[in-house]
Specification:
By secondary structure, the protein is of the alpha/beta class. The protein is built from seven helices and 14 strands. The strands form three sheets. It has a seven-stranded mixed sheet with strand order 3-2-1-4-5-7-8, with helices on both faces. Strands 10-11-14-13-12 form a five-stranded antiparallel sheet. It has a two-stranded parallel sheet with strand order 6-9. Helix 1 runs parallel beside helix 6 and helix 5 packs antiparallel against helix 7. The longest helix is centred in the middle third of the chain and has 24 residues.
């Protein structure tokens, strides 16, 4: 089974390494040297060089040059994990077995953009790790492998990312032999059950202290590293907030956004229904008690 691999994020590198650890040969890799679109970007070229894998750096996987290079590999199957643009018809039909993609939700639910961030922002308690055969639409192809995955209240972007990598790696172990022996099954998605998450924008990351404490907590943990971080505006400057904690507040006659108290390492802020403690941030100097955020 001749494999062509496409990827450009940390997840891509982890799965590429897993495939190599299982002693499957990668005939070629398409990747990027840099990306402003992916905060979890990872350069795959060092791993390729270490394992003597031919690679092609491209910003347009659908370009004629990219297609020609991939055709020269003559892959039986293509893996595309962590590429932020749709694959077009010519490439989709190039490999006899097709292209296997990945989406960390329980497809057909929650197709679309930023699945890990939305899962945490919305406070979901479960998701899934799904490998599927790509078609010309977003996340709608036949499912190859799907495993449920619990989301803890204490998970943040990094811990959930790690869970997803671990779960996906176990799936790779299971289905790679099935692909190699043409003994796999394809499960069609029920499009009637599908919904689509939109692309997030910068404004989606701004904390409004009129929000509930839980909503603020979910927003902060969803956007913490490796993502860009939730933020507030303080003295007309953007301040990143990396970690918060929900706390009890009994003073109901105080407006949202006021600083209730502080320690040497944190500040307490009134929210729409309670309060939060800001535990990790990029404040150069903490606001004073009684100030507003």
């Amino acid at each position: 089974m001749k494999i062509l691999f496409i990827g450009t994020v940390k997840f891509s590198k982890k799965i590429l390494q897993k495939i190599l650890d299982l002693n499957y040969k990668i005939e070629g890799v398409c990747c990027k040297k840099k990306s402003l679109l992916n905060s979890d970007f990872e350069d795959l070229t060092p791993l390729c060089k270490k394992n003597n894998i031919p690679f092609r750096i491209t910003n347009n996987i659908n370009s004629k040059d990219s297609i020609n290079w991939i055709q020269s590999i003559k892959p039986d199957i293509i893996f595309c994990f962590g590429w932020s643009s749709l694959i077009k018809h010519e490439l989709l039909t190039l490999a006899p077995m097709g292209i296997v993609g990945y989406h960390p939700t329980k497809l057909p639910q929650n197709r679309g953009r930023h699945p890990l961030i939305w899962s945490l922002t919305l406070g979901l308690k479960k998701t899934a790790s799904t490998f599927f055969f790509m078609d010309e639409h977003a996340d709608s192809g036949d499912i190859l492998s799907q495993k449920d995955l619990k989301i803890s209240y204490y998970d943040d972007a990094q811990s959930l990312y790690n869970k997803i990598v671990e779960t996906a790696s176990s799936q790779i172990e299971e289905f790679m032999p099935l692909l190699a022996n043409s003994n796999f099954t394809r499960v069609k998605q029920n499009n009637k059950l599908a919904n689509f998450w939109r692309k997030r924008n910068k404004a989606d990351g701004k904390i409004d202290f009129r929000m509930s404490s839980k909503n603020i907590y979910n927003l902060v943990r969803a956007l913490t590293k490796p993502y860009p971080g939730a933020y507030i505006l303080y003295n007309e400057k953007e301040v990143k907030i990396w970690k918060v904690k929900e706390i009890i507040n009994t003073k109901n006659n105080i407006e949202s956004g006021v600083i209730l108290g502080k320690t040497s390492n944190s500040i307490f802020v009134k929210t729409g229904d309670g309060a939060i403690e800001i535990l990790a941030s990029e404040f150069t100097d903490f606001p004073k008690i009684g100030e507003y955020l």
